[in-house]
# Entry
Amino acid sequence: MVAAGEIAQIDERYIFWTIGGGDNTLKDWVERRYLDKLNVPQVMLQDSDRTSAALPIKAEKTTWLQDMQARPHTTAFLTRKRSMDNYFHPDALTRLTNNLLSLPAGIDLDFVKMADELSMHLTGARQNARQTGFNYQPDDHNGVRISKTNPGACKTIICAHIMRHMTAEEIRQRASYQDGADTKHEVMEWIVAIQAHL
# Structure
């Protein structure tokens, strides 16, 4: 989005990223309030874990959001989709695999367990590689090849490889939502919140 001229460059020297999921690292940072003691502004983002648009957000998630919003110098968000994985655009996968792998039509891109879904299709594509010429070799943020196709590896493939290759328009499409008559962009809301603290 920076390259597209839609947002200003963010100086990441002033950002301390704590990324977690399913472990205690991120939980410790939040519950032990390490950054509060340093009077550091914080933007927190947590998966909603919703499995359908028709379902309400769980009470524990709503409570977390309210608690975080009540803290000084803190802005918090719950994803509108199930998890961060659900923001990837399927066109990016098709493009990165030279049109040899696409997600099936009809899956709920916003609420499916995306890493599980990709794992199933990527495993099948690799098993048929000899016949199809499938040679997708994703890497992580450090350039290390991700060779496994289990759901954990696919979560990394989605977040570290596919999303890195999405266009600004693809990000905009996957992050758009309706608020009454207005179209809003969730990822932009997160970025604006981060920029407000810099």
Observations:
- Strands lie at 42-46, 74-78, 176-179, 182-185.
- The mean pLDDT is 91.
- The chain has two domains: 12-78+185-196, 85-166.
